[in-house]
Amino acid sequence: MSNTSEAVDRTQGGEQIREAKQRLGGLHQHQLQEQDDIETVDYKMVTFSLGGKDYGIDILKIKEIAKFAAFTYVPNAPPFVSGVYNLRGDIISIIDLRVMFNLPAQRKAEGSPEDGLILRLDELMIGVVVDSIDKVVGIVSSRIQPPHPIFGDVNIKYISGVVEKDGRLYIILDVDRIFAKDESAPDEPEPLTAAVASKDSGLSPYQESPEVPTSQGAAGKNEEELDLDFIREGLVTFKGFYPDEVSSTWLHRRYPEWRAERKQLGTEVQLTGEEDAEEFLRTFYSPYSGRFWGEDYVEGVKALLPEEMPKNISVWNPGCGKGYETYSLATVLRMRYPDHILKIWAGDKDLLNISTAPNLVFGADIIPTLYEPYLVEAKNGFAFSSQIKDAILFEYHDVANTNAVPNVDIIMARDLISFLPPKQQALVLNEFSDKTSSGALLILGQNEYVSETLGWQHVGSAIVNAYRKL
Amino acid sequence: MRVEYINPFVESAYNVLKEVLSVEIVRGELYLKSTSMPVLGVAAIIGLAGDVEGRVLFDMSKVTAIQIASAMLQSMEMEPIEELNDMGKATITELANMITGQAVTKLHNLGFKFDLTPPAIFTGDNMEIADTGVEALIVPMDLPFGKIEINVAIRERN
Fold this sequence. Notes:
The complex is a heterodimer of chains A (about 475) and B (about 160). Chain A is an alpha/beta fold.
């Protein structure tokens, strides 16, 4: 039996070997053709989608691809922690990347498993939930390009690069960065501490300011310097106004005007009381303080808003007073981005003012017609409709204290910083830098300026004074 | 702290204290604080969870606590206490629970969902409380027995 079968095998064997040789030869040729492409692939990543965009994570960081069902909810965990999961006896935390990066999540049917990856970072294992897993893509690492802010649904510091493959653009996430502890600390802008230091060393903003009139003699300048010192003191005492970091330029512009005004009236240049101080500050306040914005300011703000905005727009409006400017800004954003999800954190430390803000009711005579589509009739006048109201969260909050505001795309703080003591001014400006990423918009008061060394570039117009983060 | 949360706490503190103690109560000026602050001697604490995270702390001196507890016990025809024993502590805890409970009920009617944790009480000298990362609203209440400071620290979960 065995002999005959061997014989058959042998006769067929020749053909088989020839065939195999041919196949091998073909394969070899094929390999040679593709060698140029394949040999240089030195980076593989697992790709997946988040909020409709393609992302990748280095395959070496990935332990496995998994489907997660039935997490255990952990109370008091940050919102992006979906819970913990039992992976064959190991308990791992599950992070929802969509929540973490404020991306819209695809709704899955109740109880159906979520697509995810299990990452291995040093000793730590973490599960991440994504919209859907795509495939493994091999690329040439030299083709990875540095991240660009335009892809920025995800904070740029978490992106290690961008790569194109087969006509698709993949954003490569830097998972070590994302899950590292205290990664935000090095991002603090150094120049600010430098600015504070220079102040501590006794350099007054007056000396730094280029706008000091120099035409007069040394004696005149001294007198002026004295005057300015007294005025500064008066502003601090009577109005709690500190013309330091952001408003010293304005002070020097205002001073000659003020002197002329007072000379004409025949009164003293010094501020003798609260009334004088208020009169001095008359030209400081921003347009539409304590009122709804008129058409010119609305158009001015609109012109500064970028074309591209994340789907969830976050705004911080400290020092919102009675909320007029918050409602105005909310309306402008709603007009400009009708389909985006809008969230505004507005706060003020004046309890009486802020208490009226959430249920602000006003007469038709004080509101420009452009707001009309967003109004509803209330008991004693008009109020904003829920599409505006629900976007705003009014808080009794002192900006000098710690806050729970997340990272934001827009900050509006008009005529706020100037009313804080110098130390707090520096802290608040630092906080603004901390809470924003590149491209964020900062709207300040009409006469408040931040230096470019703090990372803000002036982009405002004659109507709206604003900065964009570099 | 969200503006809508303020009134429920102030109102229920005022109402509950007035009701259970039947004394004149003067509400002090509200203010905000975020640094560490001393605790007067007795502090009842209740945690909040749900749409928000945070806690409410009822802070008073030991003497005030004993007097308040005694007044509450007497109103239920029970013996007053001389020192802050288990009964006294349970009474203060209950007071904290009543105030917070009523505030949370009011908030619930406004559409905010809060859960409470079981209250705990701390006593001792030279205590200090520090909250990092959350600003506290202080509601001072002046009673004939002394003052109670209600310290509400809540932040939105976002």
